[in-house]
Amino acid sequence: MSQEWAIATYGLTKRFEGHIAVNEIDLRVKAGEVYGLIGPNGAGKTTLIRMLATAEEPTTGEIYLHGDRLLRDDSNPLLKQRLGYLPDDFPLYDDLTVWDYLDYFARLYGLQQPSRRRRLQEVLELVQLENKRKSIISTLSRGMKQRLSLARTIIHEPILLLLDEPVSGLDPLARQQFRQIIKVLQEAGMTILISSHVLSDLAELCTSIGIMELGFLVESAALKDLYQRLSRQQIILSTLGKMELLQQKLSQNSFVQTWQMIPQSNRLKVNFTGGESDCAELLRSLIIADIPLTEFYCSQEDLETIFLKLGHQQTS
Amino acid sequence: MKQNMRLFHHSSSLWEKFLDLNPQLFREIKGKLRTRNVILAAAISSVTQFVAVVYLLGDLPDPDPQGILGVQHGRYGMGNIYEDFSSYHYRHLSYTKDLMGNWVINWQLLWLDLFVILSIISIFALLVVGTYMLIADTMKEESRGTLNFIRLTPQSASNIFLGKILGVPILLYIVILLFLPLHSIAGLGARIPWTLMLGFDAVIIASCAFFYSLALLWSLMDFGLSSFKSWLASGVVGTLLLVLTKTLFHGNYLTLDHPAGWLFLFNPSLVLSYLIEATYLPDNKIDFLPVENLGQLLFYGQALWSKASLGISLIIFNFSLWTYWCWSLLKRRFHNPEHTLFSKVQSYWLTGWLVAITLGFTLQSTANNSLTEYFLFSQFFLCVWGLGLIAGLSPHRQALHDWARYRHQINKSNNTLWKDLIFGENSPSTVAVAINVAMAIAYITPSIFLLLDLDRQFVFWGFILSAGNIMLWAIAAQFILTAKTRKRAAWSVITVASMIIVPPVSFGLAEIYPKTIPQVWLFSFIPTVATEYATTSAILLTMLGQWLAIAVVSLQMTRKLKHAGASETKMLLSESR
């Protein structure tokens, strides 16, 4: 059981009646990574995360966090100290104030004074709820409650964070705030496993991606490798001159695979297999050929396109 | 002033340290201990005490300086017996005046009455309201999902539950703590030794520990009825306490030489017997169970409750023992809410303790007739415990299927099937229930043959048939728990309940009595009612029938489990064939 894996599961399986929610998953997440878990609804993401958080008992299989076996009892309090879990429904205590709620969890995790007070202030600042510290929780907005839950999840400075759909139901501003917080936590060296349907968020945050379908982990790779393997480079071109001349010139370049006209505009979308220097060479050749270019823009297929290309159905 | 400040600071830091030790208590205090609530609790306490005092003072004579009211009588009089048969209180004593013209009043009795009233109110409030509060609170946390977060923290289950027990009913504790000054004054006024009062308080604390642990365990048991659970539990506790306390209060003729006497040990009011005795007030003044009658309660033939010190210690031991077991089950249940209520090993220990204690209370007399009746009672108790075992040991469909499918993968120590059935987690309960029942009967049988004379045969066969019944219920319940229907738990309860209730009711309706046709009654909840009249061959045939039924259901279940345990590939292959 290698220590370098923040999370390592071996044949992790969970059955509900005849249905296998998670099927023999061997997940590996390196320390310090932000690992995004994507997949259609019912693929088993939440069940997997719940098992990693000891909220669900696996049918078979083993879980190791930083080399230590995770069990569902009170035999390993140290392991629980390392773990932070934010479920998608984030239940709270409505009768407590923001400060008392966090103070309660800080005590549950054994934080002593004066570091407890300091840590409470730190996390309140991080989740931007300093001015709400004396408010009763029931008076907070959904976004604030979400941030308070995140604060509760990180109050004990865990080194592994499990976030299940943390941005669902949040408005764009709250989502952006949430992303900022995750980035800060990542910089602080936390390993974060996050499941989300908002793939643009994951593309921005994650270093690795796992794709789940029907309980299987069908893909697990560094985001960089995934882009390299599956994402095509595209160039958008537009010209003031004749389109035929441009197309003739493009056909002479060996890195240009196919192209298509973008409807209702004098623009082309070119699928390009070359690297950055090949791209520069193409631009140079077009300029030398006196083609009056008005646009030459390189882009890559995004995570959503890759996901759909793999044949999975993203449902939200 | 400065010193006071330092003292306050010192105590507040001690308080802080105490709260640091138990975060759950901190949370409960923060949520519940608001000024408004505390004032309300203090007001309730004061009003209750005021009403109790006023109620008692109403029995004192009216000031009658001119002597125009004639003879006054009441509970606290010290004169002659006043006989007025038209009144409910016809046996009261008349009030007399001393030479100075002051009423002569039995103040000691008045204080004792106040002490008893406050004690009974405290016991009912603590046990009934406290139980309700704890269950309602835990159910709310479980249904909302907040309990899961607590499970994820490094805190031990004991710490969390201790915090809940100390914190959830904290306002109730304030009400009762405010009783303490008047309660103690009343006790001392009634000339109850303070050691006995402390003993009584210790019993109340022990009873709270037991009932609260049981309440928490109840709230963690998952069988639907969630909104109704807190009402049901506090209702049962309240009714039980009410019946037992009412019996104690007309206890001059109550004899406790019966196995049911054990039940009274779960009512802390029982200790009042010792306290009332210590006042040396005449028996006819207070109609409460005298210590003499309490002393008739035997345990393995020993009168252990005739002396206050030993009696109170044993009552505390009884509460502590069951609190310990509740606590063990709580710890198991807290981390794994899907597991069965107790493990198979725990069930063997529990059966051991229960049977040892039940037999102890069964052996109340050496008279053959009474002893036969007491054995019937212990058989009834064994059947009830059998039902408890079935409920606490039988894993549900998912767990059973997982066990059947992945047993070989999970058991790395290569446990044999038998070992797994006897000790393993999630394996079918039938073998473990059989072992528990066999243990119980093995322990009881020597006493049947040594102490009973004529009835030994039919009592023994009664136990054997009961064992068969329990096994049949167990396997039927387990079989239904593997069914595909969603309400399988409810169905298994309905099945077992109808197996118990339907036969005697239908025999009763058909006017078939144990004396007339004993054979059919051999299948009832207490077969001993019929073994007396049945022939040996009828009993043997009944046993054969029972075991045949057990074998058939077992075979059916084995087939089902084998099917559930087959891999997907195997299932596919068998379907395609």
The tally of strands of chain B reads: 6
Of all chain pairs, the largest interface belongs to: A-B, 37 and 34 residues
Structural class of chain B: mainly alpha
Rg over CA atoms of chain A: 24 Å
Q: How are the strands ordered across the major sheet of chain B?
A: 1-2
Shape of chain A: elongated
**Helix content range of the residues of chain A, please?**
25-40%
Attribute tags:
heterodimer, A: 316 residues, alpha/beta, six-stranded mixed beta sheet, five-stranded antiparallel beta sheet, 34% helix, elongated, B: 577 residues, mainly alpha, two-stranded antiparallel sheet, two-stranded antiparallel ribbon, 25 helices, disordered N terminus
Topology:
The complex is a heterodimer of chains A (316) and B (577).
Chain A: E1 5-16, E2 19-25, E3 28-30, E4 34-38, H1 45-52, E5 60-65, E6 68-69, H2 77-81, E7 83-86, H3 98-108, H4 115-126, H5 142-154, E8 160-164, H6 172-187, E9 191-195, H7 199-205, E10 208-213, E11 216-222, H8 223-230, E12 233-239, H9 243-251, E13 256-262, E14 267-272, H10 276-288, E15 293-300, H11 303-309
Parallel strand pairs in A: 4-9, 4-10, 7-8, 8-9
Antiparallel strand pairs in A: 1-2, 1-3, 1-5, 5-6, 10-11, 12-14, 12-15, 13-14
Chain B: H1 2-21, H2 23-32, H3 35-57, E1 73-74, E2 93-94, E3 96-97, E4 103-104, H4 107-144, H5 146-152, H6 157-167, H7 170-177, H8 180-189, H9 194-220, H10 229-249, H11 261-264, H12 272-277, H13 291-294, E5 298-299, E6 302-303, H14 308-335, H15 344-362, H16 368-393, H17 397-410, H18 417-423, H19 430-451, H20 456-481, H21 488-509, H22 518-521, H23 528-531, H24 536-565, H25 568-576
Antiparallel strand pairs in B: 1-2, 3-4, 5-6
Helix pairs in contact in B: 2-6, 3-4, 3-7, 4-8, 4-9, 4-10, 9-14, 15-16, 15-19, 16-19, 16-20, 17-24, 19-20, 20-21, 20-24
